[in-house]
Amino acid sequence: GNMTPDTDRSSADEDLSRRIIDLIARGRASSRSELAAALGLAPSTVSLRVQTLIDAGLVTERGDGTSRGGRRPRLLGIDEGSGIVLTVDLGGGHARIGAHSLSGELRETRSIPVALADGPEATLDAVCDVFDELARDTTIHAIGISLPGPVDIDRGTVTQPSRMPGWPGFRVPDYVRRRYGVPVAVDNDANLAALGEHRAQFGANGHSITVKAGTAIGSGIIVDGHIHRGATGAAGDITHTRIDGSGDIPCSCGNTGCLETVASGASLVRQMRERGRTDVETTADVLALARDAEPEATTIVRTAGTHLGQALSGVVNFFNPHAVFLTGSMSASEPFIAAVRSRVYEACHPLATQQLRIEAAQTRADAILHGAARWALDNLEMPTA
Prior knowledge:
five-stranded mixed β-sheet, 13 helices, 41% helix
């Protein structure tokens, strides 16, 4: 007979469980027969899995659906009272913390000041104190953590180089898991923002790129609904694409003329100050001037969009995504997005842009929390009985 090792079978079972929960949570299937049709599996296989999830208190049955002849189907739902998923978006100066239902829906958020330089233990302890408050009367099923630097997924550590003293090599998931005994999924902010936006727009299928254009520039790639990290976790990093005609400004990576030196919020501020605008201190200042149609600011913002479009056009030609989503402070600027769009359409093969959407992300400020919840749910430990 066909012998599959237990580990393979149980991970396939877990994967099936997650897909069932995802379909029910997103309202794509509300009965066993709809699930079987959506998954292309035998109804008996699906029924066994569903029963395990009901026994585990993750899925509930309520009422009868409408009969299409034969027995009336029993409607399935996510047991919203059965516990929560917790998330945190760790930033330079503050942590944004979320509590989500098992369907990934964000129910409550908190923000606390943190100083990453205090090191991982102090920072994570402060976050966990808020986790404790949010989870006071309920079960925690999983935790998702976003870190503001490159992450080694297998170890759950921040890798060099990062501006996080004391963090490189520290195993974040192990530390948090010791406190709660649940799966802890960690990734960087750009990947999680990409996952959050993509799942909100496309669910578990499709390809997209999400670019965070704020003070700095970062990006994440989604292939078939999953984060694509590449061989060394550096996939999607367009930050250091060389831009022709950029004036060869030195970059933190050691090269000159990188995208970050001409298209990031920090570079916009620098360009305005070089033009004698000493009143400009933040990205928001430049964007406000551009909104008021101040000519210099408008030109600088448009040029930044053109540069980003230039860097993206090679990626779009090569990768052929369904969408490019823009997040971060610059994504609120219409002239910026218009410039990105026109450069990509102009520089790409018509086939690559035939169905391409280039737009501001819908998940806004909470994209990272949504992505962290999805990543935590993807790592839920499922009953395998």
